[in-house]
Known about the structure:
Layout: H1 4-15, E1 19-20, H2 21-27, H3 32-46, E2 53-58, E3 61-66, H4 71-78, H5 88-100, E4 103-104, H6 105-112, H7 117-125, E5 129-134, E6 142-146, H8 148-153, H9 167-183
Helix pairs in contact: 5-7
Amino acid sequence: MTDKKAAIEGILFTMGDAVEGERIAAALELTEDEFSALMDELIREYEDPARGMMIMRVGTKYQMCTKPECYEDLIKLCHVPKKHSLTDVMLETLAIVAYKQPVTRADIEAIRGVNSDFTINKLLEYHLICELGRLEAPGRPILFGTTDDFLRSFGVSSIDELPYIGPEMVEEFKQEAEEEATIGV
């Protein structure tokens, strides 16, 4: 019989993408507690600075991936761009999607006050947002939400880990925006 930690490691390495913890536990005939204990142990082992890999939790899924500090060396080998750069407009749109999801293009444009076709298409291309379905309304507009790539890119395991923006912060942002709008006048 294979060592269970080694089996988990092999599964995550081979699959490449994030895998539901429940599926791994079922495949290895582990209870939820046994699986959690083994995952916690493996994650700690991969935190060793001498290792170039890490195990990341993405919601209820797990994925083996390269540690961010190794990207520069990997890029030299692969000759690929480091990362897509996100403009302020893209970050603004991404924040709207993250905090308001599921959200339609019209909702995004109502908040931003401008056409957002290009930005939404770029975020789809970068796999930071995806189509979640269609709204049961006239025209059946597409609903957008964030992806696992979004969570990985921002180093969070779920949307719940995003900073809380309360009503007082919204007021502060409104005041700042109003002040910025009057600077050029």
